[in-house]
Amino acid sequence: MAERGVIVSRAAIRLWCSKFGAIYTPRLKPKHRGYGDTFYIDEVLVKINGKQHYLWRAEDQAGEVADVYLQEKRDGAAAKRFFKRLLQSHGGEPRKIVMDKLRSYGVADRELIPNAVHDTVQYANNRAEQSHGNTRVRERGMRKFKSVI
Asked: What pLDDT does 133 receive?
């Protein structure tokens, strides 16, 4: 656009993205090559209308969000539900899973993906921890979440 002498503001590009993004999304989905073989998994406490919920998030090694799931509990059954959902969207068993030392993960790991390498080293999960920052920024901007929907 600049080569042709057309000046475009950032606001115009943002409006184009919101207007035409929904049209291009279905066209790009079939071309998605899938996720990597390493997942970074973490959960964060989110208050919605005064009630505590846990937002579970899985990213691959490229930083692409593979799955996000909101649940009321953080126990072994909740971890199993999240891992089943993640495995369905991934289509196969990942080679490596990086997570923190939450005991609920161990329950789901042993039963659903025993062959994967499980990494629980102290700072290995920082990538997943930092991905919650966008949620926190949005939560502050909205002055707390009001509903689950």
From this structure: 76
Find out whether 113 and 79 touch, Cβ atoms under 8 Å.
no
Q: CA quadruple 76, 69, 99, 85: dihedral positive or negative?
A: positive
Residue 80 near residue 113, CB atoms below 8 Å: no
- Closest by Cα among 71, 137, 67, 75 to 103: 75
Encoded amino acid at 130, one letter: Q
**Do residues 103 and 83 make contact, with C-beta atoms less than 8 angstroms apart?**
no
Mapped to the 3 state alphabet, what secondary structure does 96-132 carry? EEECCCCHHHHHHHHHHCCCCEEECCCCCCHHHHHHC
Q: Name the strands in the sheet holding 117-119, side by side, starting at the edge strand that comes first in the sequence.
A: 65-71, 51-60, 38-48, 96-98, 117-119
CA pair distance 120, 82, nearest whole angstrom: 18
* Amino acid of residue 145: F
Model pLDDT for residues 110-148, shown as the tens digit of each residue: 788 888 888 888 878 777 778 777 777 777 777 777 777
Domains of the chain, with CATH numbers?
38-141 (3.30.420.10)
